[in-house]
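Morning!

This is the sequence you dropped in the shared folder:
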Amino acid sequence: MERRKVPRNPFVLFTGLTGLIGIAAYVNIVPPDSLISLTGFFLLFIIAATSLLLYFLQHARHALLISAGITIYFILRLLGLRQPLYAVLLLASIIALEYLWKDQEQP
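The structure's back. Tokens below.
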């Protein structure tokens, strides 16, 4: 049984690369001194990371979980929570969400 290849969407790749360029410009232009500028950075980061991961993985749930996990990890680092236990707990919760969503997809 052969697996059918799904063609990749170049718009998703374009969105991800444009998001990375936007992050580079945003970091150089906007100072991180307010909550609004940090929120803008993290929103731009999650959009760019999700788009790139969606292009490479071709699985929306995995792309969203990985990019949300990376973003939450960066937010924890920003808040000063640098102990390794936080990363382990974050990884465990992402794996648990993956299994929860995978079980809901199956009839």
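Headline: The CA atoms of residues 10 and 97 lie 29 Å apart.

More detail when I'm at my desk.
O.
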